[in-house]
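mind reviewing both lines:
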Amino acid sequence: MFAISLGDDGAELTPLQPWQAEEFLAHIDRGRDFIGAHVGLPDIVTDLDSARAHLVRYAEKTAHDAGYLYGIRVDGTLVGGVMFRIFDTENEVAEAGCWVEPGHAGRGLVTRACRVIIDWAIEQRGIHRVEWHVSSANAPSIAVARRLGMRRDGVLRESYRYRGKRADMEVWSVLAPEWRAAKTA
């Protein structure tokens, strides 16, 4: 399995695959409340079967070039992840997402991991627009979008029903020319 270094702090980016379901479930369990504050992943991954099913769904998306899922590891331990929930090469649009355990938040892990996958999507795969959909209440995720050089396209008012409540969703994006310009600046 490959691993891409995310810096000199023992952090790396690796694929997440179905055979890692037990580890994935343990990771979600460690951060269930924190991750679930804004992200539905803990509601989907509730036991070993659902963890495996989620990883299989992404393996199938990857096989069809329609989505990708990667783990963020620190010293070999799974502590978070990044993904392309949508990966549409025909329209050259992708939607990135993330999550991290509470003990590893605020260290720049998600930003560094997203830089790797966004750069790959734009430079290797020809994606023109990378989107970031985030609850307006999720300030840390909005901060990641800003650090990635994304611009807020708008707010979809009360468009997202989450745990029985309506939430505003912000759409942020970065375009390939903006990404390239920021890299050379």
Observations:
- Residues 175 and 181 are 10 Å apart (CA to CA).
- The longest strand covers residues 77-88.
